[in-house]
Amino acid sequence: MGRRIVFYGNCQAGTLAHLYRDQLSDGDDQVDAIFFRDETDEENVNLLRAAHIVVEQIFDGPNDIVSRNISPTARAFPIP
Fold first, then answer.
1. Is the CB of residue 45 less than 8 Å from the CB of residue 68?
2. Integer CA distances (angstroms), 16 to 10, 21, 26, in order
3. 56, 18, 15, 4 alpha-carbon torsion, rounded to 10°
4. Which residue, 35, 28, 29, is CA-closest to 7?
5. Global confidence as pTM
6. SS3 label, residue 77
């Protein structure tokens, strides 16, 4: 199985997840998108914890929910 990649943010992050899944992934990656208001949902927290890569949209306020739930071995990429 490939990498688990999670895109976190608003509709733009969701669009990036679809783009990656449909155009860039080699087919082995599991790609998910988490809408920023749903990050406390237990299923979404588990997705963050299991992710190899997290692409996180940065907002104007603190968001420790995402950083607190990312595995220390995961690679995180902030996007505006």
1. no
2. 10, 8, 16
3. -10
4. 35
5. 0.88
6. strand
At 29-74, the pLDDT tens digits run 999 999 887 767 889 899 999 999 999 998 876 666 677 889 999 9
Contact indicator for 33, 13 with CB cutoff of 8 Å: yes
The residue range of the domain holding 28 is 4-79
Beta bridge partners of 57: 79
The structural domain count of the chain equals: 1
Rounded to whole angstroms, what are the CA distances from 17 to 9, 57, 62, 76? Answer: 10, 12, 23, 15
Question: What whole-number distance in Å separates Cα of residue 40 and Cα of residue 24?
Answer: 28
